[in-house]
Amino acid sequence: MAARFAVVNGMAGTGVQQALRRYADWCSRNDLSPPSIISLEDDHLVPLARDTVSKLHPRFQPADVTIMEVLQLPKPLLMEFWSKAFDEALIGIRESLASEQPVILTFHAAWFHLGEREYMSGIDFGRLANLKERPDIVFTLVDDIYDVKARLSRRHGLFSYNVDEPDDYHTAVLRLLRILDWRNTENVLASKVAEITESPHFVLAVKHPIVVFHNLFVGTDKKLVYVAHPISEIRRLNRGTEEQKILAEQVVERVQDLCVRLSEHFIVIEPTAIDELRFDFTVDFEDQSIYLPQLGWRWPLPSDEASDLLFEAPQEPDDAFGPSWAQFAQEIADIGIENLDQTQNEKIRQAWPSLKALQEQILEQITARDYSLVTQASGLAVYRPAFRGNESGGVQREITHHRILQQAGLDRAKVVILHPEADERDTLVSNFKRIVDSWQEAGILQCQPAQIASLKSDLTFDQLQSIQDANTDLSKGQAISELLGKFGIEILTRTARAMAPDPSVVAREEESERGKLFAGLQSYISSLIITEDVEVIREDLSIIDFAQRVVNRIN
User: Fold this and answer.
1) Any idea what DSSP says for residue 2?
2) Is residue 389 assigned to a domain?
3) pTM, to two decimals
């Protein structure tokens, strides 16, 4: 088998070089031939540009020049140096391939030009298009924005200069937003590299096990499986009672167990290898519930053994939102939000809009990244997407995207979903409570707040069974009225219309409308049962049995 050649991209601060060193060490430990790793910037670009930098800036001796100084050169010079560096790197690539040694070329698809303060790419796409040695695969490595920021904030890093208080919070948020934008730019350019070289492109988080990178690099017959599961609901449980926290831990352990078992048969892609929407701390502030810029619980890494992962933690921890906010967050925890003075309240008021903007950008990238991961996978293994009756919107979008790819004629494996009957029943109860809330807000319920509270705490699926079993929309609506009546809640009838002067006619029409609405309260999973490309398992299977069912259906 011919030696493999990969191109690995990743924005600055991702820890690409550390990840590749860890991969080479892993190969040596497992009696595999480690790849030759060629860094275009470190091994060739910086050495080529040192004399030029020293001539333009005599205060720098050639030996002291780093990529930071190189990235202040005029753009035309950088483009010229990139092409020369690529030609030098190509010699090493050819030598490795000729000696049947796997080789990895790594470079940044996007630079942040330190002189002009904007993104640029040094890539000579024309040279890539005419390249004889085509990479077998192109990777874009990514990491949590908070770890990227920490690496870029180390000594001589892009963010290493000090920022005086009180602006460190807003500076931190702007940097996190820049990282999101930069990462997206890197990914777009890397995908263009893959397109031009006619190579497959994979986005891979460095917090994945090394074996995932290895299997993709060397090429195997294993299919890629994306493991989808609820994340937000588990995070909510972690913010709850001790009992709820224990339940969250159990779910995490089951998902991790599922990934381990599936990895014996597939290349497993885990969405939680990136976990950035970690704002767990909320306060009631000025008649609204807002998040504080303070990071909470992170989904555990796929392995407790650091040597199993591409990820290498930043050497120096970093306050994600700046030291002044870290101190203030502790003050809030100590004295309570209700005891803050006017100055402290103003600090929260000023922080919230920028944090909200950051959240929105993170959410956009979560959606885009998950679509990319689903696209590069073969099949989906979906674990309890309506856990405790709370349907995961993210999982729904992933399933829908997979099915669209199937319908477009792309070769896809099945979606296998574990959705026990208990989750379906809980979903119906949860959705019914939400409908009651909407009726209360619309002013069509006559009741006391205590009666609504009683319904929410005592309502069970068995009480909804008679509604579900009713044959017509009208009978369903009548059963709803009867059920609410047991809690002392009355549904008001609208004023009779000219075409229907009889109030009883209006009442029946409205009951039919409510009955029809009830019929749509089932989970979105229920509508997938009749499709051929999706298998929904309604049994409460163990992880062992579910993993085996996935293996049987996808392989």
Assistant:
1) P
2) no
3) 0.92
Report yes or no on 238 lying in a domain: no
Asked if 51 and 193 sit in the same domain, the reply is yes
3-state helix, strand, coil in the chain (%, to 5): 55, 10, 35
Total number of residues shown for the chain:
555
What's at 444, amino acid-wise?
Answer: I
List of residues 6+ apart from 132 with CB closer than 8 A = none
Query: Residue 221 burial (CB < 10 Å; 0-12/13-18/19+)?
Result: exposed
Each residue of 325-335: pLDDT tens digit?
888 888 887 88
The secondary element (H helix, E strand) that includes residue 500 is none
Would you say 436 and 483 are in contact if contact means Cβ atoms under 8 Å apart? no
Pair (334, 432) in one structural domain:
no
Confidence of residue 341 (pLDDT cuts 50, 70, 90): confident
Strands 137-142 and 36-39: unpaired
Contacts of residue 57, defined as CB under 8 A and 6 or more positions apart, other chains included, come to 69
**Three-state secondary structure of 20-38:** HHHHHHHHHHCCCCCCEEE
Tell me, what amino acid is at 184?
N
Read off the pLDDT of each residue in 39-68 and give the average, rounded to a whole number.
91
Sign of CA dihedral 167, 290, 364, 231: positive
What is the three-class DSSP state of 128? Answer: helix
Structural domain total, the chain: 2
What Å distances lie between residue 317 and 21, 107, 151, 342, 422, CA to CA?
A: 21, 26, 9, 32, 43
pLDDT for the residue 192 = 97
If asked whether residues 187 and 295 sit together in one domain, one would say yes
Residue 11 lies in a domain: yes
Tell me the DSSP string of 47-60. Answer: HHHHHHHHHH-TTS
Q: Are residues 361 and 459 in the same domain?
A: no
Q: Give the SS3 label for residue 288.
A: strand
| Same-domain check for residues 439 and 337 | no
Segments of 353-461 assigned E as strands: 379-383, 415-418, 445-446
- Do 372 and 428 fall into the same domain? no
> Which CATH number does the domain housing residue 373 bear?
3.40.50.300
Task: State residue 513 phi and psi, 5-degree precision.
Answer: -65, -40
Structural domain ending residue among the three candidates 318, 343, 377: 377
d(CA 174, CA 168): 10
Final residue belonging to a domain, choices 317, 351, 377: 377
Query: Are 442 and 324 within one domain?
Result: no
Same-domain status, 309 and 455:
no
| Residue 321 included in any domain | yes
DSSP 70-120: HTTS-HHHHHHHHHHHHHHHHHHHHHHHHTT--EEEE--SSEEETTTTEEE
Range of the domain at 281: 5-223+266-377
